[in-house]
Amino acid sequence: MHIPKKYGHGKVDKCPFCQKHATAMNEQKVPVCQSHKDEVLDNLKCICGSPLETLHGKFGTFFSCVKCGNINMRKALEFNEIKPRMHNEIFSQNKHERACQNKPQPKEMTVRSDDPRYFD
Hints:
The protein has helices at residues 73-78, 86-102, and strands at residues 24-25, 31-32, 53-57, 60-65, 69-72. It is 19% helix and 16% strand.
């Protein structure tokens, strides 16, 4: 059965750190989500053990190995475990907690129909 292509469903980039929809590029030109925009992919190794070099081309980000040649991003991320830096997560959580504490709590006000403020 042939399913026709739909506009916007052709290429969907995923963030390598959290698998969300990637909407930004980091400094290595790797598509990432907004929360991981400052993260970089470090110490990626090929199956043969040699380090991978990050490259950006016409069809997106790919990696180059000295021994094996070019490897697409999906394959490179399969055999490398990607973890974001814990410092950024802890910092963002603490920042969020501080923002929630500083936010004033809304007051609940009851106005009845016989109250003069009802017609203001």
